[in-house]
Amino acid sequence: MMDAVQTVEVARALLSAHGGRAEAVAARKTREAKAAGHAPDAEHWEAIRKAIEERSGLHPSFA
C-alpha cells in the first residue's frame, strides 16, 4: 500500500499534468484496476482520487 506522502506526491503530479481533469484520470485508473482484478492498485488509485478531491480546491499551494 502506498503511504500518505506517496499518495500526495502522485496526486500533485496528476494535478500538475491534468489540472481539473486529474480526479477523473484517477477515477478511471481506479475503475481499470478493479476491472482487471487488481484490488491493491484500485485502492491506491482511489486514495489518490480522494487526495485530489480533498485538496484541489482547498489548498492552492498543493497544485
Give me the strand/helix succession: HHH
Number of helices: 3
Distance between the termini: 23 Å
Runs in which pLDDT lies below 50 for 5 or more consecutive residues are none
Number of β-strand runs? 0
Instruction: Characterize the largest beta sheet: strand count, sense, and whether it forms a barrel.
Output: none
**Radius of gyration, in angstroms, nearest whole number:** 11 Å
Give average pLDDT, whole number.
90
In total, how many domains does the architecture comprise?
1
- Please, what is the oligomeric state? single chain
Helical amount among residues, as a percent range?
Answer: over 70%
The helix/strand class is: mainly alpha
Indicate the proportion of strand residues: under 5%
Task: Explain how this protein is built.
The chain is mainly α. The protein has one domain (4-55). It contains three helices and no strands. The protein has helices at residues 4-18, 22-35, 39-55. Helix 2 (22-35) runs antiparallel to helix 3 (39-55). The protein is globular, with a radius of gyration of 11 Å. The mean pLDDT is 90.
What distinguishing features does this structure have?
63 residues; 0% strand; mainly alpha; 3 helices; 73% helix
